[in-house]
Write a structure and sequence with these properties.
The protein has 102 residues and is an all-alpha fold. The chain has one domain. Helices cover 64% and strands 0% of the residues. Helix 4 packs antiparallel against helix 5. The radius of gyration is 17 Å and the shape is elongated. The two termini are 15 Å apart.
Length: 102
């Protein structure tokens, strides 16, 4: 079995830190792992992004938006969710390059 070569010492770059903090602004656990340059941060980033390129909008959200005339707000929320998912996916992709030499 081949193992990948990890960077040692593991110190996350400022660019990576910025992306992660923008993707998870409310997560104290992610901030803690980031500040300690923890390898385990990758698990959180992997779990945090859908990785599918899709976002979830509930049927109730759609029906409520139609009933209350707030379709524009629903659309804005969907754009915000999509941007957040894109940022989280980027953070996880960047993590791989932050941690491994190959």
């Amino acid at each position: 079995m081949d193992y990948r070569t990890r960077k040692e010492p593991l110190i996350y770059s400022n660019e990576f830190r910025d992306i992660v903090l923008r993707a998870y602004p409310e997560s104290e656990k992610v901030k803690e792992l980031l500040d300690s340059n923890a390898y385990f941060l990758g698990r959180y980033l992997d779990d945090g992004c859908g990785g599918t390129g899709f976002i979830r909008v509930s049927i109730n959200d759609i029906l409520n938006a139609k009933d209350t005339g707030t379709q524009d707000q629903l659309f804005e929320n969907m754009i915000e969710m999509a941007n957040k998912e894109k940022l989280r996916s980027l953070a996880y992709k960047m993590w791989d390059k932050e941690v491994f030499l190959d």
